[in-house]
Amino acid sequence: MGKARIPVVAIFDVGKTNKKLFLFDEHYQIVFERSARFLETEDEDGDPCENLESLRLSVFDSLHEVFRRDEFDIKAINFTSYGASFVYLNESGRPLTPLYNYLKVYPQALELQLHEQYGGVGEFSLATASPALGSLNSGLQVYRMQQQQPELFRQLKYAVHLPQYLSFLVSGQMYSDMTSIGCHTALWDFSKKDYHQWVKDTGIVKKLAPIVQGDDVFSAAFPGSTYKVGVGLHDSSSALIPYLLNFHEPFVLISTGTWCISLNPFNEEALTKEQLEKDCLFYMTYAGTPVKASRLFAGYEHELQTKRIAEHFQTTTAKFKHVEIDWKIIDRLKTTQKVSPQLEAFGELALSDFASYEEAYHALIMFLVASQVASTKLILSSKKVKRIFVDGGFSKNNIFMNLLAKSFEDIEIYAASMAQATAIGAALVIHKEWNSLPVPNDIIALRYFRA
């Protein structure tokens, strides 16, 4: 008698830097993990881009490896990856072009031409809930191909976002999902709940694969295989799923990293011009409902300023990791500093104003929290939010969390931690397809911070 095989789900989590494969058991514990990094390659203009061929081979390679292992019974596979990236597939499912980088410089005249035809940049951005971000508006990448490479555009069967391309490799099915369409692509008209008029007028709508729900699954393309294949998800939307499934009272999630993104899945009020100018947008949940979001480049600013403080006080940035909040310093700073919610404000202060690196660091976090509060307030709605969850880097920062709790006195503030939230989201969304147990309610570890 062989040992019973462990039922698992396989999740590919494809980031800009790290490409990971996880196997989760029915309790959402990681039972296998593999990580890869590829060298970037170049597109025809010499700009850096993802190596699509390495990625494709790596997916098959990793799958072969886990299918060869007798101890696992793979019931389903799903994918999550960064947004704003299209793969252009021909009739036989082969990519026609490199995977262009979303930071690639976009031809200004082309962007202007599109905006002008549809009421100018303000109106266009409001309708599509997409601040004008050049190539980061991935719909404009397809428009660029249509205008500048008409011969290639003719051969194009479907443009699919990266998570759906990964799914296609295993299922052989070409589809679009709402989480990818909803991330600042400039394709979707949020008030009409349909593609924007420009997508139809240009005929680009014919080059976009049919839309399915984010919790849909397909059968695998390989004969004789019984596992199900998910449609794939945009990473920011995927990381929200564990919270949506666990908490039903209105909440906001502040996902912190290089960007700190405040996500409110309980605010469907239309974007205002002012919110748009302050970097607000809509994402979508896997079910296609809008999530109002605001972005702040706070992690990046934290990194810049801690280096500046460390150099000035001749210490190392590692020291800041363990600084606990000192309320005496905070009270003193409140009398000497006029704290501004502008993200760059701290960078303009002279560090000689501070007595020690601890004091300077407390001041930096005071300024960052002021910016964060302003950014998060943009997406609070008339529906009263009961809780704010903070995950990622800043959730481990004692000063940041305490000051945030002090700033939102009537909302409960929690530091939330969950290993691999993005991957777990992609597993949870297809839970019923592979897992015989109920959805666990202890995936997210919470720490409460009192105001």
Structure, explained:
By secondary structure, this protein is of the alpha/beta class. The protein folds into 2 domains: 6-231, ATPase, nucleotide binding domain (Nucleotidyltransferase, domain 5); 239-451, 2-Layer Sandwich (Nucleotidyltransferase, domain 5). 35% of the residues lie in helices and 23% in strands. The chain contains 16 helices and 22 strands. The chain is globular.
List keywords for this structure.
globular, 23% strand, 35% helix, 22 strands, Nucleotidyltransferase, domain 5, single chain, 7-stranded mixed β-sheet, 2 domains, 451 residues, 16 helices, alpha/beta
- The whole-angstrom Rg is 23 Å
CATH H-level homologous superfamily name of the largest domain: ATPase, nucleotide binding domain
Tally of distinct domains: 2
Q: Could you please say which CATH topology of the largest domain applies here? A: Nucleotidyltransferase, domain 5
Give the low-confidence spans: none
Distance, first to last CA: 58 Å
Percent strand? 15-25%
- Using the alpha-carbon principal axes, give the shape: globular
Mean pLDDT, rounded to whole units? 94
Helix content: 25-40%
Second-tier CATH architecture of the largest domain:
2-Layer Sandwich
